[in-house]
Recover the amino acids of this structure.
């Protein structure tokens, strides 16, 4: 089976930096994705890591350590609009099926 | 806007009934995925179709079925509905569905259908 663990809630202030961790246990692994979901909205793709290291996309960065079965999403220069739920997801099969973590609700305060 | 469309946006029905949810993938995408999101179960993969063929199956109940048509749109059929089936149902699409080895395999989600079973 597959399981992913991430904190349920994180709170930070506007302009700060926040890191959302994700640890996973999977029978197969092709890569780790991150999605953002605002309340009532659809999950939106943020980033993907197949190899160890850091991927940077604007204010968001994602890191993966395959040996530690661990990754994180780093959000810099937080804005109020970043308040949302963030999901890590593992692509563990050749068919591209995603297994999602339970999600981390990020609250950005002024 | 991801380019994936889903209808209807909202659906309210009674226990024991049957409903059909519809999804149109992004132009050019061959793979369609269905996910269920509920408060207690989170976001769960149900089933994937690639170019009309079933490719992967997740925790999909036997009361649920899906298909992908020649024009690549997909339908998810839910029957003998129970209160616990109330959830958001998302469809996603990707280019090839072969695995996230390239940007073509990123899954783009539609706006979802909110199903309420009374």
């Amino acid at each position: 089976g597959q399981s992913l663990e991430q904190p349920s809630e994180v709170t930070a202030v506007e302009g700060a930096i926040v890191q959302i961790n994700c640890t996973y246990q999977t029978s197969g692994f092709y890569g780790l994705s991150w999605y953002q979901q605002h309340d009532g909205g659809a999950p939106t793709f943020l980033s993907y890591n197949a190899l160890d290291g850091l991927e940077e996309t604007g204010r968001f960065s994602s890191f993966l350590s395959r040996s530690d079965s661990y990754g994180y999403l780093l959000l810099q220069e937080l804005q109020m609009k970043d308040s949302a739920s963030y999901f890590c997801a593992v692509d563990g099969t050749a068919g591209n099926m995603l297994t999602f973590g339970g999600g981390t609700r990020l609250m950005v305060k002024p | 806007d991801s380019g994936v469309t889903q209808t209807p946006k909202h659906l309210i029905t009674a226990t024991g009934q049957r409903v059909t949810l519809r999804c149109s993938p992004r132009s050019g995408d061959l793979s369609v995925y269905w996910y269920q999101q509920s408060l207690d179960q989170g976001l769960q993969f149900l089933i994937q179709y690639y170019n009309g063929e079933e490719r992967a199956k997740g925790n999909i109940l036997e009361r649920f079925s899906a298909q992908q048509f020649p024009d690549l749109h997909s339908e998810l059929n839910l029957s003998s509905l129970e209160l616990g089936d109330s959830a958001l149902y998302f469809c996603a699409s990707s280019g090839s569905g072969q695995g996230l080895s390239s940007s073509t395999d990123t899954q783009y989600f539609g706006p979802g259908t909110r199903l309420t079973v009374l």
The CA atoms of residues 17 and 31 of chain B lie 28 Å apart. Chain B is about 0% helix and 50% strand. The interface with chain A takes residues 2, 31, 33, 42-45, 48, 50, 55-56, 58, 90, 92, 94, 97-101, 105-112 of chain B (CB under 8 Å).
